[in-house]
UniProtKB/TrEMBL annotation:
Residues 34-90 are annotated as: Disordered. Transmembrane segments: none annotated. Residues 36-45 have a biased composition (Polar residues). Residues 134-321 form the NodB homology domain. Pfam families: Polysacc_deac_1. One of its GO terms (molecular function) is hydrolase activity, acting on carbon-nitrogen (but not peptide) bonds. It comes from the Bacteria. SUPFAM superfamilies: Glycoside hydrolase/deacetylase. GO terms for biological process: carbohydrate metabolic process. This is Peptidoglycan/xylan/chitin deacetylase, PgdA/CDA1 family. Residues 67-77 have a biased composition (Basic and acidic residues).
Length: 338
């Protein structure tokens, strides 16, 4: 009896376990991916859709989406280092010693390059180019100005002669195209300080040099050159002493005064005829002349006098040149006082 009851309980327990397994298997099958039958008769498991949480705009992958083949990322090419270019250094020229206090004043350069001499003066020997028997250097200070510079350039072009423009830095800043025109047409460009303000320019040799450097930077930005030729505002007479010359010569500048003046700065407006007479009176007896004129908006009679002055000089047998560092300066004697 007991044996028969045990068998019945075991059978009931087995049925119960079987029913439980079937129930649990059916619940789990809802969570598994459903299989599909392909056209070839194979069973293909479906993959659940995966969406990145980091990019809401990304396209979710489906069972028909194939990933693009991965390619190896190539590192960006590294530029070869540029070797340091050797900049040809300018030869270092030793500065001369100051002359003894008993040195006589000799206020001009010799054409062989021998510099002036004076007590305490320290100026280097130069090399100057040979010149024609009679040479005239036309120079114009204070420009450029739109009222005068284009007219002067046109006359010089028509006459076929070159001149030198000693420009102010402030004017070159205002009218860079006019400075370019002067340079492109082959004329010489010199430095006439930045401001032409005597209280600043002649405060000391150092302030004079600072004005020259300031104007030089303006000129360099416009036409790409750094002129070595300097003309002191108003000339060196009464403004310079040996310290000014020493300061400028140490920086390799050459200073140019003049030995003939048109006189166009004697008044706001000087008659054309008077300007020509001033030239005619000063030129005779000189084989090389540096002629002072002005390029400023009030000097309209200078424009009128220029062709007449050029014709006179041609009649006297002069050639025309532009000033470069190879041209020996003409200097006033009063600038060599200690």
């Amino acid at each position: 009896m007991w044996t028969k009851d045990c068998r019945m309980w075991n059978a009931a327990l087995a049925v119960l376990i079987l029913l439980t397994s079937i129930y649990l298997g059916g619940c789990q099958s809802d969570k598994l991916p459903k299989a599909s039958l392909t056209s070839s008769g194979t069973i293909k498991s479906a993959q659940p859709d995966i969406v990145s949480e980091e990019d809401d705009n990304s396209i979710p992958k489906t069972q028909d989406t194939q990933e693009a083949p991965k390619t190896e990322s190539r590192p960006e090419p590294i530029a070869e280092p540029v070797p340091n270019q050797k900049v040809e250094a300018k030869p270092v020229i030793p500065l001369p010693e100051k002359s003894p206090l008993d040195t006589p004043i000799h206020p001009f350069y010799s054409l062989d390059g021998t510099p002036p001499s004076a007590p305490g003066l320290a100026m280097r020997k130069r090399e100057f180019a040979a010149e024609p028997e009679k040479i005239a250097y036309l120079t114009f200070d204070d420009g450029p100005y739109p009222e005068t510079t284009p007219h002067l350039l046109e006359i010089l072009r028509e006459e076929g002669v070159k001149a030198t423009f000693f420009v102010l830095g402030r004017q070159a800043e205002r009218y860079p195209e006019l400075l370019k025109d002067e340079y492109v047409q082959g004329h010489g460009i010199g430095n006439h300080s930045y401001s032409h303000d005597y209280s600043s320019v002649y405060h000391s040799p150092e302030t004079f040099l600072a004005e020259i450097k300031q104007a030089e930077e303006v000129i360099f930005k416009v036409i790409g050159i750094r002129p070595r030729m300097v003309r002191a505002p108003g000339g060196t007479q009464g403004h310079f002493n040996v310290n000014y010359y020493n300061t400028l010569d140490a920086e390799d500048y050459l200073v140019y005064d003049w030995n003939v003046s048109s006189g166009d700065a004697a008044a706001p407006l000087v008659l054309t005829e008077q300007l020509v007479k001033n030239i005619e009176a000063q030129v005779p007896g000189k084989t090389r002349v540096i002629i002072l004129m002005h390029d400023s908006k009030s000097k309209t009679t200078t424009i009128e006098a220029l062709p007449l002055i050029v014709h006179f000089l041609k009649e006297q047998g002069y050639s025309f040149g532009k000033i470069t560092p190879k041209v020996a300066p003409i200097l006033f004697p009063g600038g060599f006082n200690s």
